[in-house]
Structure formats: C-alpha cells, structure tokens
From TrEMBL:
Gene3D superfamilies: Helix-loop-helix DNA-binding domain
Localization of this protein: Nucleus
Alphabetical list of PROSITE patterns matching this protein: BHLH
GO biological process per UniProt: regulation of transcription by RNA polymerase II
Coiled coil: 156-183
Presence of keyword Coiled coil: yes
Principal subcellular localisation of the protein: nucleus
Pfam families for this protein: HLH
Domain BHLH: 83-142
Highest rank taxon of the organism: Eukaryota
Protein name: BHLH domain-containing protein
Keywords from the named record: Coiled coil, Nucleus, Transcription, Transcription regulation
PANTHER family: FI24210P1
Amino acid sequence: MITYRVLQVQDSTDGSDFVSTASSFSPSNTVPQVISSSNINGPIYVIGNTDAYSTTSGSRPIAPKPSLVDNTFVVQVKKRDEKRRATHNEVERRRRDKINNWIAKLSKILPESPQDVKGNGQYEGHSKGGILAKAFEYIIELQAAETRLGGYIKDNKKLTTAVDQLRAKNFALESENAELRDLLQKHGIDVKPSL
C-alpha cells in the first residue's frame, strides 16, 4: 500500500531546515530526513528508510540535481534555429525572385492597351496584381480567338470542298460545251466562243 503525505519545508534562522508533515499515518521508518544540506540546489530529502543512503561514517555523497536549463544546449538550439531561419529566408527570397522574374517576363509579352499609355506616350507600369490580371484577361481573349478560329477552319474546309466540287463541275461543263461547239461547227453552224 502506498500512502501520500503533504510535506512542508520551513526555513529557520539558524540555517537548519526541518520538515513538518500532515498525515494521520506516520510509521517511524517513513519520516522524511535531510540527507544532504548542500546549497547548490537545496537540501535533498528522503522519505522512507534512510539506512540505504547513509552509513556510520556519515552521509553518502549524492550527485546534486542538475539545473533545469543547460546554457550550452540553449545556445546550440538558438544557433540551430538561426541557421534554420536563415535557410528558410534564403529559400523564400529565391522563390520571391523567381515569381518576380516571371511576372516581369509576362509584363513584357502582354500587348499594350490604350489605357497603359500615358499622355506623353510612355508605358505606365503595373503592379504584380495588375500584370497578372491583365495576363488572365489576355489568355481569356486568346482562348476565345482560338475557338473562333477553330470554327473558321471548319467553315474554310467546307468551302474548300465546295469550291473543288464546283471547279470539277465547271470543268465538266466546259468540256461538254466544247464538244457541242465542235458538233455545231461540223454541221455548219457558226458559234461565237464565250468568255
């Protein structure tokens, strides 16, 4: 069975610390005792049998509790964080530069509209958002033009086929007309050639 007790360490003016407990159950072998009174991290208390920790020659040396934060570890973490932050900033700067370069290239290939030219005939630069919006509108215009051109190509193919058929029919009629003229001339009828 495990019992828990509330311990309260009180400081006295003479430098000796003592422990007061609040418990209804207090066997003699579980009274807390000060084992070591070092000023490094405070005294060390043992609840239970202290025979394992002390000998007749005095108290056994116990390693003091390590400090909560190791300063060298904090410095290493800060250096690692700074390096990670610097790497991240460099990657982010390259990404921004790449985006800015592509936006600049886009702005150079976009056609100028009358709204882009100032009164003195010089080109007025746009913000990145303005350039992207103009590129979007231009792409939509190109898609609409491509759709229209696709329709024109189909119409052109149909018209080309119709023209080829009419040429063939015209050639056949001209051949037939020439045969009929020859026949009329054989019979003595003079026919004027048509243009």
